[in-house]
Hints:
9 helices, alpha/beta
Amino acid sequence: MSAIQENLMKIKQAVEKKDCLVVAVSKTKPVENIKEAYDAGHRDFGENKARELESKFGALPKDIRWHMIGHLQRNKVKYIAPFVSLIHGVDTLKLLKKINDEGEKNKRVIACLLQVHIANEDSKFGFLPTELYELLDSGVLSTLKNIKVKGLMGMASNIRDHRTIREEFSGLKHLFDLIKRQYPETLVEMKVLSMGMSGDYQIAIEEGSSMVRIGSAIFGLR
Ligand SMILES: *Cc1c(COP(=O)(O)O)cnc(C)c1O
């Protein structure tokens, strides 16, 4: 087994015991690295740049489920709309509408997660909880037939203080559970809670994550 395969297997064993899916974040890494993980049976990969995602899709087996995990610009949606499996970082209604348009052109329904701003940092994108409720209450989601909201995504502050990270994750889980209770599945499906990266995925899983996005702990430092 290669180092990548060993890292991946160790993490998968620990994470999948908790009913959580690993998205292997392969951004900046060559397709050969992805192929190693693929050959070990892994199928979920994440990238944060649309053009890089598109070119890796072209170069690799077609049963890979590709996750767009980073900040997505509206003019780049077209490059990934034909095949993307899940878009994690949807942070504005404008972007959601654009994804819907591209879904319509490609005659498919594109699964999306709404990104929530949970960190105490200005640099992180996402809806504030109040903005999220405004979106859900506006009714606009039921007019967008070519997207389906499947859950929420969040990034904790990039700090060492575990208590703060834990509070941010548990706040997001709380919001996730509330929305699940308050809104019908026909409007939003709260099935996926995407939180946790290499440095904080254990905390995220303890706080209820169902999908972790792990890059450097699998593929090595970028
Ligand atoms: C790069 C990235 C990750 C993975 O980061 P690692 O620390 O390498 O695990 C997860 N989520 C997003 C949104 C990213 O951009």
